[in-house]
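Follow-up to my post from last week.
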Amino acid sequence: MSETLEKVAVQTEESRTQTRRAFIKGGLAVAGTVMFTKAAEAAYDPKSAVKAYAGKKEITDVLTDGPQRRMLGKGIMSSTYSMPSVYEKEVRKRTLEWLTPDTLATISMTPIQSMHGMIVPNGLHFDRFHGGAPDIDPATHKLVIHGLVERPLMFTMDDLKRMPSVTRIHFLECPANGALEWKGIQVNSVQWTHGMMSCSEWTGVPLSVLLKEAGVKPEGKWLLPEGADASGLVRSIPMEIALDDCMVAYAMNGEALRPGQGYPIRLVVPGCEGNMWVKYLRRIKVTDKPLHHREESSKYSELMPDGTIQRFSWVQETNSVITYPSPDYKMSGPGRYVAKGIAWSGRGRITHVDVSLDGGRNWKEAKFTSVALPKAWTRFEFEFDWDGSEMLLMSRATDETGYVQPPMAQLRNAVGTNGVYHRTAMVTWLIHDWKGNRAGEIENVQF
Ligand SMILES: Nc1nc2c(c(=O)[nH]1)N[C@H]1C(S)=C(S)[C@@H](COP(=O)(O)O)O[C@H]1N2
Ligand SMILES: [Mo]
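User reply:
Got it. Predicted complex:
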């Protein structure tokens, strides 16, 4: 992680409050006008989000047997691999045409707005290719560990499956996540602002076990993992990270990796940049030094305001986003709502998430609705009453190292707008006034 980002990152509880104050003093302006709701603190009325139909004709209609009750449904084996209901066909990976001059070297995005819980189904995991997804027969695929090792080793898929395994839940995020709107708003969906990310349960062999078998020589300080695809993607990984919690994974969410995710094997580098998670892994070379920047496949580096480059960055910073309500939804009138979102950190566990309804003036702690595992999506919710006036909805995550997700302006001041990686500042959803002509619409705004 770069020094400048480190500065943004490490904030104590105290500086967190200062930041907030400085930020508010800096002023808030959204398209010239800002109105703040005062309704948030209203007493909880459990009925306010629930429509009362009791005694009405609708209830009788619902209780009358429908056609599905009077005929048989589809039997077992009508499909040997179940697909989602046809009514869920809007929930799809998507890509932006202007971002996709070439489908072999670009990115599709996960529909974060439609995801629940901690796990993204395999069919909706985003894909990032540098040379398309190869078709690899696991019967012929091999992994080689060589370089500065006592015993160069070669593993077949059978060999790997005979070895001890580990199963863990981790997010996988391209460090370019958030980059699309870094110079200004240009996308109005959380699928575009945060969809270069998924979270899955990964199963594979701990990398430390494989490296121990090979016997790393004392001079062996770096790993150069390489993919078998056309891109032959290579990244330099320091030995401390490799020996920590990395794995060579063959399964995700209980089944074999999907071809887009590196079938038959990929590197899992928890908490670190997606580009280090080398897919179609065919060899790991142990070396005494990293690749020169010009050799590193995709030159994933931080471009600073003065145009210089920060040599390496690995960890994905603390981040969070409210996925509901968000720009894909519409408010259905004043009343009680539950804001729902995800928080994650490459440095460990999320310890708390705050939500603001007034553009960052006031913050309230959200409650977790999932377990908070290290380097995994953590789910939070926050109940609020909407009085129908304009509202600025935001979330801010803190992790166990004390890192607090920075406001957009603070991060921009620190890293500028040249680069595209590690843009993890808070985002803001503007909920339009219920009486206005954009009643209930939700818009991505920056200030
Ligand atoms: N072999 C290989 N590994 C690769 C890539 C690639 O193109 N080829 N893309 C990298 C990048 S930039 C990212 S963000 C992640 C994306 O993983 P996914 O496609 O499973 O979402 O894989 C990384 N590993
Ligand atoms: Mo990436």
